[in-house]
């Protein structure tokens, strides 16, 4: 028997994210000043694996306040659309797009739940449907997510997922060297930790969240069941923040385990295409 999903999971998560938008906007983690000056928000492996986006349309599901979305526009995507359930995040994304001189014809943002994306976004077929790190853990139903993403891919296009590896949530926070949580757990995880990943000491009120761990096999299988062809599954030995105390920050901005220590995957990426 699985634990029931709290009835207020969606409202609790949205309130948490709404409150954290201004904290993230002001943070060194997102460094908006550098982004405005031209710094790329995307990871190097994402750019390499997605490839040239020049002249292609791209939909970013769960886009937060749009830095990755707008970065794809900067790389030449003909039109980008970002979707997020947080209205403050979407408002911020729209303001940033206007600052960069990207009108709605180049960069549009929609406030809606990801499961409602087919009805909410302005187009019905995108060359690329993209989702970045830290998105899938907020969704209870990965099959429904994959079906939604697949329904929005144009023939010959693909879904690209860049995510934190779920094995990381099975290990202890101090060393990342001991398995302390069940990798295959299906129960929702309710957290009440204040602050946020950009500022652990930030004063916050809406601290309750409901999250889910989705094993990599579950994500890949859901995409295949939705009618997409899996092109690759890549695992990466680096992550974007100091998930464990023993991780070291490298010059490229990634966090890795010290040299000589056995490595584990900390992120993964999947490309799944729709036949032309």
From TrEMBL:
Residue ranges constituting the Methyltransferase domain according to the UniProt record: 59-157
Any single biological process term in GO: methylation
Pfam families: Methyltransf_25
NADP is among the record's keywords: no
Keyword Nucleotide-binding among UniProt keywords: no
Documented EC number(s): 2.1.1.222, 2.1.1.64
SUPFAM superfamilies in alphabetical order: S-adenosyl-L-methionine-dependent methyltransferases
Annotated keywords: Methyltransferase, Transferase
Protein name per its UniProtKB record: Class I SAM-dependent methyltransferase
GO molecular function: 2-polyprenyl-6-hydroxyphenol methylase activity; 3-demethylubiquinol 3-O-methyltransferase activity
